[in-house]
Amino acid sequence: MADAHHEEHEDHGNTVAAWFLTISWIVAWSVAAVGIMIGGDMATWTGIALGASVVLAVIAGVMKKAGLGRKEPRPVPPTREEWEASRASSTEAGAEKKGEPAPAGAK
C-alpha cells in the first residue's frame, strides 16, 4: 500500500536525462578501471574519467533543460513533527471509522 508521499511522484527519477547520466558514468568509470588494470597510469585514467564525468553531467543538464528531465521541482519532505502529526491523525481517523477507541499514546 503506497502512502500519500509516494503518490505525489510520477517519475521517481526515471527520466531520460537521469538514466543517461547514470549509465554514462558507469561506462566512463568502468573504462577508466580497465585502463588502470591493463597497466595505465592511475592518475591519467582517473583524470580522464573525472573530465568525462563533468562533460557528461553538463550534457545531462542540457538534456534536463530541453525537457528530458524532471518537470517539476522535487517536493519538500515533511519535518519530523509534521510527519508525526499526520501519522497520529490518520491513526485516530482510522480507529474512529472502525468504531474503536484511539490507540494508547495517540493524542
The ordered string of helix (H) and strand (E) elements is: HHHH
Strand content: under 5%
Euclidean distance between termini CA atoms: 25 Å
Domain tally: 1
Percent helix: 55-70%
Question: How would you characterize the largest beta sheet?
Answer: none
Number of strands: 0
**Unreliable stretches, pLDDT < 50, 5 or more residues?**
none
How large is the radius of gyration?
Answer: 23 Å
Shape: elongated
| Helix-strand makeup class | mainly alpha
Let me know the average pLDDT. Answer: 81
Helix count from the secondary structure assignment: 4
Task: Offer a concise description of the structure.
With 107 residues, the protein is mainly α. The protein is built from 4 helices and no strands.
Walk me through the structure:
The chain has 107 residues and is mainly α. The protein has one domain (14-69, 79-98). Helices cover 67% and strands 0% of the residues. The protein has 4 helices and no strands. Helix 2 runs antiparallel to helix 3. The chain is elongated.
